[in-house]
Amino acid sequence: MSEFLGYLIPGIMTGFVYALIALGFVLVFKSSGVLNLAQGELVIIGAYIFYAVAVSVGLPLWAAVIATLVITALMGLLIERTVMRRMIGQPLLAVILITLAIGSILTGIMILVWGPATLSLPRLFPDGGVNLLGASISYSRICFMGVSLVLFAILFLFFRFSRMGLGMMAVADDQQAAQSVGIKVSTVLALSWAIAAVVSGIAGILLTSVSGVHYSSVGIGLSAIAVVLVGGLESVGGVLVAGPLIGAIEGIAAGYLDPLTGGGMAEVSPYIVLVLVLMIKPSGLFGWKRIERV
Predict the structure, then answer these.
(1) CA-CA distance, 266 to 7, in Å (whole number)?
(2) Inter-CA distances, 66 with 10, 61, 258, Å
(3) What pLDDT was estimated at residue 290?
C-alpha cells in the first residue's frame, strides 16, 4: 500500500500544477472561444524569464517572482493587443492556427536567447519531505498543491465578487449581451490573456524549479490539453478536479506500467483517459452541454 501511495500522492500533487496550466486554456476559451495552442510555450518561457531575473540579473527570489509575474502579464497583453485583437471576426480555425504560430515563435525566442542547454533554477523549496501513510512526499510536491489551491481560491473570489471578474463571466456567457450593458469586451479579452500568462508563468516556475528548464518541455501543454478537455473547456472547477486525476493516473502508470513496457505509458495515459471520458461525455466531466432552440 505504501508503494501505491508513493506513486499516487506525488502524482496528485503534480496534477494541481497541470490544473494551473489548464486554467490558462479555460480563461482564454471562456472569454474568446479560442483554444490557445501556445499555452505550453507560455508556461516554459515564464520559467526562462524567472531564470533571467533571478540568475542573470541576480534579484532576490521574492523580487524575481514578482518581476516574472509582471513581465508575463505584459507579454499576455502584448499578444492579445498586437495579434489576437486583429483576428476578431476571422474564421475560428485561422485564429487557433495563429496561436500555434505564436507558440513556435516563443520556442524560437527561447532557443535564440537561452540556447539548447538545460538551465537550473534557484531552489524555491527546502530539501526533504514528510511521511504520509507510509509514502515519502517531498516538500516541493506539497508546495505545488498549496500554491495551486491558493491561486484557485484567489481567482474564485475574483470571479465571484470583483466587478471585472463578473464582467469576464458575463463576456464568457454572451459577448453581445455583455457589450449591450456597457462591458468593454476588448478590455476583458486583454485581461484574460494577461491572467492566463501569469498563471502559466507560475506553473512554469513550480515545475521547472525541480527539473530544470528546457525548451523541449513545452510538451507539458499537451498534458494540460488532456486535463482541460476531461474537466470541460468552460469549467474552472472542472480542471481543478481533472488535473489531480490526470496526475494520479500518470503517477500510477509511471510506477507500475512503465517498468513493464520499457517506458512511455505515463505520457500516453492522459490521452487514454481523455478518449474514454469524451466517448462517454463529449463536453467533459463538467463542461457545458449547449442546447439550441430551433
Answers:
(1) 11
(2) 27, 9, 39
(3) 57
